[in-house]
Specification:
Layout: E1 4-8, H1 11-14, H2 18-31, E2 39-43, E3 57-62, H3 66-89, E4 110-121, E5 124-136, H4 137-148, H5 155-169, H6 174-195, H7 207-226, H8 257-274, E6 279-280
Parallel strand pairs: 1-2, 1-3, 3-5, 5-6
Antiparallel strand pairs: 4-5
């Protein structure tokens, strides 16, 4: 398929519950609605096409930030093995570059890679695609809980604010002191109750919190999909900017208009380059392990 973002439908995604996933999908589709004939699909691993188009992208959602680099290394390495397997099956004389493990810290809870090229091999022109992206639920969830927290405070910040108020209350007397102590403790308890959600399954969270998580995760997925078309961040901000905020910043809810034009232009360029190929090598050939397998 061409111009398709494949979001891998697996146990991690299912664990979030249908409401969060539906909100995530709606957000990603809305973000990419500017791109002509662009499709966003939630796809099981056995439905991912063997041949990945230059205009396609793939994103795997993982549970934690620690999972991001581990999954990237696994996926890149297996994609390389699979492509080498397909090259051999097509009787082509191509030596893929040696795989290099990545220990880079995830950027805003995600990472992406892409290599899409047409190589001249004898009398043939061979299309090769190695691409993928990872997005962390933990990052989107932390951003969500912070955004919806009382005063947007983390639990540590709320505790520090309470302690500061209690210290000031020592200077008061009688009922005024009692009121200040009560207010400080009550405010902290609200924050404590809110942050207790962090230790529970997101699918059990209040509906408004689930909806916000779906939106945040959708934006993170879209950011990582974008890098599979344009490697560099967009200098003038938007969702394609470096360390783009997932929530609370209107300009980061979508890609900047000029960034959108760049993406559309890159899709057209990829279309043109791929059409020059006479052979398209499989990225996910049958008989090979799935690169993004949990």
């Amino acid at each position: 398929m061409a111009r398709t973002l494949f979001i891998i439908d697996d146990a991690t995604l299912k664990s979030l519950g249908s409401a969060i996933v539906a909100k995530m999908m709606d957000e990603v589709k809305s973000i990419f609605s500017f791109a002509p004939k662009f499709t966003v699909l939630m796809t099981a691993q056995d439905k991912i096409p063997e041949k990945i188009d230059f205009t396609d992208s793939i994103v795997k959602v993982v549970a934690t930030e620690a999972d991001v680099t581990a999954m990237q290394n696994q996926a890149e390495q297996q994609e390389l093995r699979s492509i080498e397997f397909a090259i051999k099956n097509n009787n082509l004389n191509i030596k893929m570059a040696s795989f290099k493990r990545s220990s880079a810290k995830p950027e805003r809870g995600g990472v992406s890679w892409q290599a899409k090229e047409v190589l001249a091999v004898g009398g043939q022109k061979v299309a090769l695609v190695q691409t993928g992206g990872i997005a962390s639920v933990e990052t989107a969830a932390t951003d969500t809980l912070t955004f919806l927290a009382p005063n947007n405070w983390t639990l540590k910040e709320a505790e520090e604010k309470r302690d500061g108020k209690l210290n000031k209350a020592k200077l008061a007397h009688g009922k005024d002191q009692e009121d200040k102590i009560t207010e400080a403790n009550t405010s902290f308890e609200k924050s404590k109750k809110h942050w207790a959600l962090q230790g529970t399954a997101p699918k059990s969270w209040p509906q408004n919190v689930q909806d916000t998580l779906g939106i945040a995760l959708g934006r993170l997925v879209a950011h990582e999909a974008r890098h599979q078309y344009i490697v560099d961040h967009f200098d003038d901000g938007g969702l394609g900017g470096e360390s783009a905020e997932l929530l609370g910043v209107a300009s980061s809810e979508k890609f900047h208009k000029d960034d959108q034009k760049n993406i559309v232009g890159q899709l057209a360029k990829f279309d043109t380059i791929q059409k020059t190929a006479t052979i398209h090598v499989e990225t996910f050939p049958k008989g090979q392990a799935f690169a993004f397998k949990e």
